[in-house]
Amino acid sequence: xxxSILHKEGETRMNxxxxxxxxxxxxxxxxxxxxxGPQVWYGPQMVASDQWLFGLSDTHVAxxxxxxxxxxxxxxxxxxxxxxxxxxxxxxxxIESLRRELIDGRGFLVMRRLPVERWSIREAATxxxxxxxxxxxxxxxxxxxxxxxHVRDLGRDAVNDPTARVYQTRERQTFxxxxxxxxxxxxxxxxxxxxxxxxxxxxxxxNEMYRxxxxxxxxxxxxxxxDRRGEVPEGRLPxxxxxxxxxxxxxxxAIYARRYIDSATRFDGVTxxxxxxxxxxxxxxxxxxxxxxxxxxxxxxxxxxxxxxxxLHDRTAYEDWDDPAEKRxxxxxxxxxxxxxxxxxxxxxxxxxxxxxxxGGVIVSGTVLNAPLEPV
Length: 376
Fold this sequence. Notes:
CATH architecture: 4-Layer Sandwich
Number of helices: 10
Shape: globular
Order of helices and strands: HHEHHEHEEEEEHHEEEEHHEEEEEH
Helix content: 25-40%
Distance between the termini: 82 Å
């Protein structure tokens, strides 16, 4: 009798397990397969490596200075600088390879040894913009048309001010993507403490959600409203709508800004269901897991380049110096990359266009492209 009972219980458990496996398989039906290759990485392994570092040689620095000097002396408008205006005989071909690594490889790199300590802001900005022109085409980062951005605390409050952007504060940013193929930062000054750059592979997050909770992962292929923070293109809603994960022409891409997904609920008719919140919370918890992400402490002269379609980036909160001349200060570029991956039509809602080499950025009525030398 006992053997019969145990047999029946075992059969019941086996049937339950088979049913669970069947449900699990159903959850994964039609989901893109797990990602493989160099775009899938885990932070601790990456930190232990230096493969993402590229140190400028003395020859490279001399080339940058030789290209920068006549432009500065002539008072050239930085926003007009193109690759053909900035000759880099040996560094230029190296950048061609580095751009391919951004697009098809691990998705980020840090270039070191740009001598910003001995340059004026105009010299540093001209050199940086010129190097950026070898990677791609600069895009407007806000409604003011800034092709050259300044990441500096302007005393704004991104929590209570619906038009503030987090880069104008000392707050932690949270993991997100920007509205362009690649985002780049040049460190001019570091904070008294904090302000580290954090990176995580959105492809690794996808694989972990695929393994753990495919039922929630499926929800991230549905559109979410994302607040435009007052920068509204003509004829558009004050928020845009697109999925977090997008599968298109054999490529998986991610576009994400949780802070602005949450703030979009201030608009009539925009809500988040409990299941959507659960999916977003899992996404965030994975991004914030130190087993997945990594942090980089910037030094003056460091340039970080990040591929938005396969990575998310963050910045830790920081304490700044009292002296205004010493405050944390980074320059930023948003870039459209030649040779980039195709993007689905849904991205046009945020990028304006999905044309390779000419997409991304923020354009509103009255936007005039410019490259300011001071935070404004």
